[in-house]
Specification:
Layout: H1 2-27, H2 32-39, H3 62-70, H4 72-105, H5 111-123, H6 126-139, H7 147-154, H8 158-168, H9 172-180, H10 185-196, H11 198-213, H12 217-222, H13 243-277
């Protein structure tokens, strides 16, 4: 009986989480008139109230065709997102992974203080560091460039925090055995640290992609030129008469994030579990 109650409770919670996605997917196949008749109460139309439909009465691909074939601005923003997100992830591999290895495996003067600073930077919301970041980027003449979004992301403290606890779990005896065999610190990092930290690194990359693919505040603050805006800023520009296109854009934007999450879910769970339970 308890299992049934638990199952029904979890199923109800799951349906609540999935419902917005289902509504968005169904609405993407509706025309403007059907959208207005169904969701006019929340879309700013004159019609009051909202009704729920499981399937569209008159399904159409018109909005998909309009977005994918008649909206060049959408693809410009799509490639802007790629130009910003993937360099951030590559930069985190080069910066955060070695930093986390150092915090996890080495003892040096000022380590605790420096790690404490990392933690402070991690818990600070963007609104707190926005002005200082803006001033630094302005002085270095990086505002209104892709680097204004890329560089702050590269030096994010969050992946260092996740990977530090993960690298702490690497047995010291294994490293000592490698040193006895003549391995250098760099060889130990490349041949032991990276292979053993593979799940944690992938989990950090997945979380980083989800964060920066959907980033809104940073590009809106640091990028005044709309030609540099990423895909996350495309939806606010869609007018009310293009509401069907907005649902399609939401679906298309969600696809890469969902695919990466689904295929990387195993590594994401392993990395989060290791960072939370070991250290």
């Amino acid at each position: 009986m308890k299992r049934r109650i638990l199952f029904l409770t979890l199923a109800a919670i799951g349906i609540l989480f999935v419902m917005p996605l289902l509504v968005m997917l169904v609405a993407s196949f509706m025309g403007v008139k059907e959208l207005t008749a169904t969701y006019g109460g929340v879309l700013g139309a004159d019609k009051e109230g909202v009704s729920f439909v499981l399937l569209p009465r008159c399904p159409t691909l018109r909005a998909y065709i309009e977005l994918l074939f008649d909206s060049p601005g959408f693809f410009v923003m799509f490639w802007n997102s790629c130009k910003q997100v993937f360099p951030v992830l590559a930069g985190q591999l080069l910066v955060a992974v070695p930093a986390a290895w150092a915090f996890g495996q080495y003892e040096f003067k000022g380590k605790k203080v420096l790690y404490f600073v990392y933690m402070i930077l991690m818990i600070m919301p963007f609104q707190v560091t926005m002005v200082s970041s803006y001033l630094v980027l302005s002085k270095t003449e990086l505002l209104d460039t892709h680097w204004a979004v890329i560089l702050p992301g590269v030096f994010s403290a969050f992946p260092v925090f996740i990977l530090t606890k993960f690298f702490k779990s690497v047995p010291r005896a294994l490293m000592e055995a490698a040193r006895v065999d003549g391995a250098t610190d760099l060889q130990i990092f490349l041949r032991i640290g990276l292979p053993l930290g593979y799940p944690g690194i992938l989990s950090v990359m997945i979380l980083g992609f989800l964060e920066y693919w959907n980033a809104i505040e940073q590009p809106m603050t640091f990028l005044q030129d709309k030609e540099l805006w990423p895909l996350s800023l495309y939806l606010p520009q869609i007018t009310a008469d293009k509401m069907s296109v907005s649902f399609v854009a939401s679906v298309v934007m969600m696809v890469p994030a969902v695919l990466i999450f689904v295929f990387g879910q195993k590594y994401l769970e392993e990395g989060i579990a290791a960072s939370g339970l070991k250290g």
